[in-house]
Specification:
alpha+beta; OB fold (Dihydrolipoamide Acetyltransferase, E2P); seven-stranded mixed beta sheet; 38 strands; disordered N terminus; nuclease; metal-binding; metal ion binding; exonuclease; RNase_II/R
Length: 1110
């Protein structure tokens, strides 16, 4: 019965496609006849399509002859065959039909020849990397290389009928021929294979796609124990397309790409590397050595950084947010009417049933239109291919000096983006900046060392490559500052100074709390309040306190800077903060969301000065339950600024407050009436309660996935001189627990009081297909994993950790892969998902609602949450005031009805309650549902861009460190096949690949039976690499070979040994040939820097081998 159902599903799907195909074929035949008639009139002597053709010449845009491509046989493609790449010969080989064409100006028009689905295969061998010289390609006016995009009217009609689907377009960073589209509602991504099928879409575009027939669907990577690398089942389960695709685009108002593998949200309370990651990255990066650390908590963004990942920006810098600009992007996956939604949902449901019935098959499709162009088109960074351009012109540097007219108006030069997800682009030489044209005229090949900012402005059907023009020149690619500037440009980070109008919104400095605020706020200056932050942090937005109550409970105070008191809605400062959305951290620098005068001084909870705050006083019993609470505005004074290191020393008992050395310079000053005994007692008490809260949280089903992170040590010039693996300690978890509790409490209050206007943060359940792959991998290696819930997942990992206590590296690898099924956490407006409250929850934290409240100095969503919470407090006050006026006994105490432990729903829904809530919302600027949804979407985009900047900076500094010296490390083999191996490098906690196919002097033997590979040195020499004009890669690109004797002398020499570079002394021994590699085996590797002036920055890895034979 099941088989019959599946068959009918397929037949129904294919019948729909067949009907479309029949209509399409009729139209194609008509077009063929018309084109054939036109061609016969224009060129009656041209050869037929099935003849073997050879292009005698191509022409530059200015009419000069270009080098002649080599022809090769190809199968008959029909009259509309556009272009065929010859797999068997040089990568630059082109075959074109018709064979001869008169030279034409590139802007001249001619009857187009369209690409249909049948010619798709002829493109699959072309990778877009090795191409003919720029002026001769992509602009032949007698044929079109791509199908025309559908008109928007046709797209809208097809979307309504469910004939096409709207999706975000992401490109495989390792193979640009593969792109993936996420269709909302489908359990897996749709493959867009080949350049013609991608039809000029680029990374980050919102596209319309039409599904291929079921018979055209491909096997899912990892299915049937095969994959592109012909690897083992384990390899396939790990090396999926998700590992290669690094882009991520938020699809709408708080909606996110649900198939993204990195980033799952945790408790992002502070975004500075090295604090607790309550809400930002899944895994904290405690870089206390950095000058500008960001506080993080391990549950906030839930992202696995893995090998330094690169995420993509989603908003141009000059695009101010007004609630309307983002409308198209926000509504990208929503239909405007119920009837339209029903048709689309029906089509998606049919696709879902088909995908679920055949889980080993991946849907394929082709792009028919670009609905919304990615903002990344405006911010391409790359390098000019100057040597190639000069080579094509046949002009040497000496000749260039003689020929002052080297540059002509219609010539093109090629730009190669540093992001491999983007295609190479063509630039009019005439449009280049004058200083670049002068350098080209002189034949200066160093021009291609510069990093260039460009804008992609056109990609016509007749062009193999898009056209672009230069916006800016950053400088030499080998300079750190050049790349920092490029990173900010790519991610649309606003680095400009705050406007004078914004600065006038701030009070004068020094600032004191006004008397009016002292009278209206709760005075908590009598409490022992202190901050715990990275040692170099300057924006202190949270502080803690604790009191022991007579009943045995503890009253924990969480005090957050009252930023909303200063940043009023609708002001210029508020607009600036909203536009920037988040503080951006770059290891050695931070770009603040708010002016430093405010974030580091007036608004910061600095010790020894009075500050305004929003406080939560939480009464917690010994079991970790909050039995009572008070929330409100307060005045506090922090008595001390503790670092994480000092707090940890206090927890470990390493600080003796009776000892005289505690007064030394290494310890911070204690202000006010309190002393070190008070602080030490408070820290230890808070630690005890945080452990109870943490254990309770995990018992309730929370999940923690945490990878080791690399921390850099910087010299006085701001450059890294060493790196270490850092881990979070108990002091980090202490702060994290209370920030998580405060955020959850704030979410509970605002979503109850304002159910349509609460800014919340959700974390969807993992991608089930990828989770099943991970479970299968664990089972293959004898590790039992229960993923039925987040709690069971966590408990299983704890048991595996105990089982692998002697192999911590393997456990780190498992945690790295456990994050890949996790989806991104995102902000959303509660009213947006009012009918889907089951989607409000946070998977990793196992709570029904969650938000960000504790970092308003560096996150705009926290400011919005503060305003909503304060509106709830004021509405509660207004309502209770009204109720009290009706009481006979005026002394009767009324319970807090909106913000207390017990929520009075009847009071909120009463006439008086609704009036109070409406008035308070208007006063505090609580946004409407529509505006708040836009704010959520924009904040998601900016948060992703900020994450992208941090990842790129991590990679940049790692590259710079390796540029100075190579690094030896052991590595574990994660994936294995006849072409490459994927390895996990322990010292850097990253994953890399080593390609060993087609290497001069290296033979590769793939042993299918044992899923292993044997690498041996070979004396056999190959002349050419298959499908490339380059020779086989040099042996040195894959292996770093040392002489054991020289190594022994270097290690054992006594004279001057103490002055030798400590990195030269290593316990890692080189391996020997022949080298047999199995899955999960350990091998020695050498890490080095690649690129800079001559290409994108990469972390190169080679085998560390001995010249002796085993």
């Amino acid at each position: 019965m099941k088989a019959a159902t599946e068959q009918s599903t397929v037949e129904g799907f294919d019948n729909n496609n067949n009907n479309n195909n029949i209509n399409n074929n009729v139209e194609k035949e008509k077009k063929k006849k018309r084109r054939s008639n036109r061609r016969s009139k224009q060129n009656p002597t041209s050869s037929s399509a099935n003849e073997i053709c050879s292009v005698s010449s191509e022409f530059f845009g200015d009419g000069t002859a270009a080098p002649t491509p080599t022809a090769s046989p190809m199968k008959q493609q029909g009259d509309n065959a556009p272009y065929c790449y010859d797999h068997q010969h040089d990568d630059t080989t082109l075959v074109s039909i018709p064979a001869a064409a008169a030279p034409m100006h590139i802007n001249e028009q001619s009857p187009p020849q369209f690409v249909d689905a049948q010619t798709q295969d002829s493109w699959n061998g072309w990778n877009g990397d090795l191409v003919p010289s720029p002026p001769q390609i992509g602009f032949c006016p007698q044929r079109c290389y791509f199908s025309p995009h559908w008109p928007m009217e046709a797209v809208e009609m097809a979307l309504e009928k469910g004939d096409v689907f709207k999706a975000s377009f992401r490109v495989n960073a390792h193979n640009r021929l593969e792109a993936y589209c996420k269709v909302d509602g489908l359990p897996t991504d749709v493959l867009i294979s080949g350049i013609p099928a991608q039809n000029r879409a680029v990374e980050g575009d919102i596209v319309a796609i039409t599904m291929d027939s079921f018979s055209s669907w491909t096997k899912m990577k990892g299915s049937n124990r095969t994959c592109n690398n012909y690897a083992t089942p384990e390899d396939c389960s790990l090396l999926t397309e998700a590992d290669d695709v690094a882009g991520n685009i938020y699809k709408g108002k708080g909606e996110l790409d649900k198939d993204k593998d990195t980033n799952y949200d945790s408790a992002d309370c502070r975004n500075r590397p090295s604090q607790n990651q309550e809400d930002t990255e899944v895994y904290p990066n405690p870089n206390d050595s950095c000058h500008f650390p960001e506080k993080k908590y391990a549950y906030e963004d839930s992202g696995s950084l893995g090998p330094v990942s690169h995420l993509d920006p989603v908003r141009p810098a000059n695009d101010s947010f007004d609630g309307q600009n983002n409308a198209a992007f926000v509504e990208s996956l929503n239909m405007s009417s119920c009837s339209k939604q029903i048709e689309v949902i029906s089509a998606v449901q049919k696709m879902c049933s088909l995908v679920n019935a055949f889980p080993s098959k991946r849907p394929t499709a082709r792009v028919v239109a670009i609905i919304e162009k990615s903002p990344r088109r405006e911010r391409i960074v790359g390098q000019l291919n100057v040597k190639q351009w000069i080579s094509v012109k046949g002009v040497s540097r000496k000749d260039a000096k003689k020929n002052k007219n080297l540059v002509s108006d219609n010539e093109y030069i090629q730009l190669t983006p540093i992001d491999p997800k983007f295609p190479k682009m063509m630039l009019f030489v005439r449009d280049l900046p004058e200083h670049i044209k002068k350098r080209l005229q002189s034949g200066d090949v160093t021009t291609e060392m510069d990093l260039i900012a460009a804008q992609l402005y056109d990609w016509g059907e007749e062009s193999l490559f898009p056209r672009a023009h230069i916006l800016h020149v950053f400088g030499k690619g080998s300079k750190v500052q050049t790349h920092l500037d490029a990173i900010l440009f790519q991610n649309t980070i606003c680095e400009s100074e705050f406007s004078p109008e914004a600065m006038t919104c701030l009070p004068c400095f020094p600032w004191e709390v006004p008397e009016k605020e002292l009278q209206s706020r709760l005075d908590l200056r009598n409490l022992c309040i202190f901050t715990i932050d990275p040692s170099t942090a300057t924006d202190l937005d949270d502080a803690l306190s604790i009191e022991k109550l007579p009943n045995g409970n503890c009253r924990v105070g969480v005090h957050i800077a009252d930023v909303s008191y200063f940043v009023l809605p609708g002001t210029v400062l508020d607009d600036e903060a909203q536009f920037r959305s988040t503080t951006v951290y770059m290891l050695q620098k931070k770009i603040p969301m708010l002016p430093a005068l405010f974030s580091d001084n007036i608004g910061s909870l600095n010790p020894g000065v009075d500050r305004v705050a929003v406080s939560m006083l939480l009464d917690i019993n010994p079991a970790g339950d909050v039995v009572n609470r008070w929330i409100g505005r307060s005045v506090i004074q922090s008595c001390c600024k503790l670092s994480y290191e000092l707090a940890q020393n206090i927890i470990d008992g390493a600080v003796d407050f009776e000892s005289s050395n505690i007064i030394g310079e290494s310890y911070p000053k204690v202000h006010g009436q309190f002393g070190w005994p008070d602080i030490i007692t408070s820290v230890k008490s808070l630690c005890e309660i945080s452990n109870v809260l943490k254990q309770k949280r995990f018992n309730d089903g929370a999940l923690r996935l945490e990878n080791p992170k690399v921390a850099f040590l910087f010299d006085e010039y701001g450059l890294p001189y060493d790196l270490i693996l850092s881990e979070r300690k108990e002091s980090n978890f202490l702060v994290e627990e209370f920030m998580l509790l405060a955020n959850t409490t704030a979410a509970e209050v605002i979503c109850r009081v304002y159910p349509d206007n609460a800014l919340l943060r959700r974390h969807p359940e993992p991608n089930m297909r990828k989770l099943r792959d991970f479970v299968a991998f664990c089972q293959k290696h004898g590790l039992k994993l229960d993923t039925s819930s987040s709690g069971q997942f966590h408990r299983s990992l704890e048991l595996i950790k105990e089982k692998l206590k002697d192999d911590s590296v393997l456990f780190d690898i498992l945690i790295s892969y456990a994050t890949r099924p996790m989806q991104l956490a995102c902000y959303f407006c509660s009213g947006q998902l009012k009918e889907r409250k089951h989607e409000w929850g946070h998977y990793a934290l196992a709570v029904p609602f969650y938000t960000h409240f504790t970092s308003p100095l560096r996150r705009y969503p926290d400011i919005v949450v503060h305003r909503t919470l304060l509106a709830a407090l004021e509405a509660e006050e207004l309502y209770l005031k009204h109720r009290k006026a009706l009481l006979v006994n005026k002394e009767e105490e009324l319970q807090r009805c909106f913000t207390g432990i017990i929520f009075d729903k009847n009071a909120a829904e009463s006439v008086e309650g609704r009036e109070a809530l409406s008035a308070a919302a208007s006063k505090h600027g609580v946004p409407s549902t529509e505006i708040l949804a836009d704010v959520a979407a924009y904040c998601n985009e900016r948060k992703l861009a900020s994450r992208n900047v941090k990842d790129a900076c991590d990679k940049l500094y790692m590259w710079h460190f390796l540029k100075k010296e190579i690094l030896l490390s052991e590595a574990r083999v994660l994936g294995l096949g006849p072409r490459f191996m994927s390895i996990y490098i322990q010292k850097l906690a990253i994953e890399q690949r080593i390609y060993y196919d087609e290497v001069e002097g290296l033979s590769v033997e793939w042993l299918e039976a044992t899923s292993s590979v044997v690498l041996s040195m070979s004396a056999h020499r190959r002349a050419f690499r298959r499908g490339s004009h380059n020779k086989w890669r040099a042996f040195e690109e894959v292996a770093f070979v040392v002489d054991p004797y020289d190594l022994k002398v270097a290690l054992d020499g006594s004279d001057g040994c103490e002055n030798r570079d400590p990195n030269s002394r290593t316990e890692i021994d080189p391996a020997v040939f022949p080298l047999t590699v199995h899955l999960l085996s350990t091998i020695p590797v050498v890490l080095h820097a690649v690129g800079g002036d001559d290409g994108p920055l990469e972390i190169g890895v080679r085998l560390y081998m001995s010249s002796y034979y085993g």
